[in-house]
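SAMPLE LOG
Freezer: B-3
Tube label: C17
Construct: single chain, 165 aa
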Amino acid sequence: MGRVPVLRVFCADAWPDLIAACEDAMRAVLARSVQRVQKRGCVAVQSYGMHWPCLFPQHGPGKKHDRPIVLADWQRPVVEAYPGDFLRGLFHSDGCRVSNRVTVRGKRYVYPRYMFVNESTDIMRLCQQALDRLGIAWRMNRRNSLSVARREAVAALDRHVGPKS
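STRUCTURE (predicted):
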């Protein structure tokens, strides 16, 4: 009430390029002024602006997995046109790329694999739709966890997500 909304994105200190990309995105979209606030182990990239709620209509009180997360009419064509960029954001925030180690009949194998974990079924569905749009094979390995493990699927996701660096 009577306050200016603030968008804050917390980025681990270990990913300086991601911090810079976050700041650049805020400046490009809306912000005239973006600040970096150093915290323990992370940086809060933040900007005040009356229109941030217009760009994030899904924001609201409570946990995101307890409320509907639905793309606004204007957001849908953007996500459909740029599914790789959308996936990059999802995987950089709630995903990871790991070396999966398995033993089959006494022989050890190591291969790269992406994991995406989210309690929101709506966000999980949006991730699945973006992967499908790009023809990237995925499977649910738990109710809240998606796995991309096939060699060609990992390579395709590498092209879109890339390292956090």
